[in-house]
Amino acid sequence: MRSVYMIVGKHPRMWVTAVMALSAILLYGGVNQLLEDRTVLTFSGVIQDKVVAIDPGHGGEDGGAKGTRGTQEKVVNLLIAKKVVDQLNQAGGKAILTRENEDNVSVGPWSQRSELTKRVEKAQGANALVYVSIHANSFPMAPACQGPQTFYQPGSAEGKRLALHIQKEMTKRVGNKDGRQAKAEDYFVLRMTKCPAVMVETGFLSNAAEEALLLRDDYQEKLAQGIATGIARYLGGEPAEEPKGAATDQAPGGFIPEVDRAVSPGLLDS
Ligand SMILES: [Zn+2]
């Protein structure tokens, strides 16, 4: 301690300058970090009264993918979707869920087509500006596959902008070790909606560690915050930057995951 006093005593001005410079650097970093970490609440201006449809994928008779310990995709989807709606509405939005519980949405004999059609009709009836369908992935052939990924309809510039924002905001909050990027993919539900639509795969239930994370309330909250903030940036008209070096979504081991075939067009268009 003595030596420190001696140095300060010899060069007081130098020390004041150094401390001021350091404070300025820390303050600048802190403000920058705050701007980066903006939550959806800071976007209330652009979300105000905007109708957004959040679709918890699967539900009712359709459980969706199954996790390594038996987690049903539909359950996780609904939990995350509810959190997204809460966050948007706390910021003044008018987000709606296409399903609110585990009942089938369509009436009469169940089919995947009638179920998806009913949900899109619900969103269109409410004049939703965007449609975000929430899913969880599964690829048991490569259990190391992990991370969130967002899909948009090929040729939809607005869908792409929405997907890029959501992908970036999710990645910022939960990471993405496999480097998954927003990707164009032809899905029935994306093709049917008149407004820009995306499908969000929040993570892989076939990866035991990620399955455990997806069941955690705080992790669901982070994903929901990423999705809601991405939607807010889209609604605010922010341009989305293409990811640098647009990496592949190729899974480790050279596999390309067959993402959520249950809602793929192949199954429904046959
Ligand atoms: Zn799904």
UniProtKB/TrEMBL annotation:
SUPFAM superfamilies for the chain: Zn-dependent exopeptidases (SSF53187)
Keyword Transmembrane helix among record annotations: yes
Stored Gene3D superfamilies: Zn-dependent exopeptidases
Spans annotated as Disordered: 238-270
A GO biological-process term: peptidoglycan catabolic process
TM annotation in the entry: 12-31
Keyword Transmembrane: yes
InterPro entries for the chain: MurNAc-LAA_cat, N-acetylmuramoyl_amidase_3
Keyword annotations of the record: Hydrolase, Membrane, Transmembrane, Transmembrane helix
Pfam families found in the cross-reference section: Amidase_3
Domain MurNAc-LAA: 120-232
GO cellular component terms given for this protein: outer membrane-bounded periplasmic space
GO MF term list: N-acetylmuramoyl-L-alanine amidase activity
Classification via PANTHER family: N-ACETYLMURAMOYL-L-ALANINE AMIDASE, N-ACETYLMURAMOYL-L-ALANINE AMIDASE AMIC
Protein name: MurNAc-LAA domain-containing protein
Species, as recorded: Heliomicrobium gestii
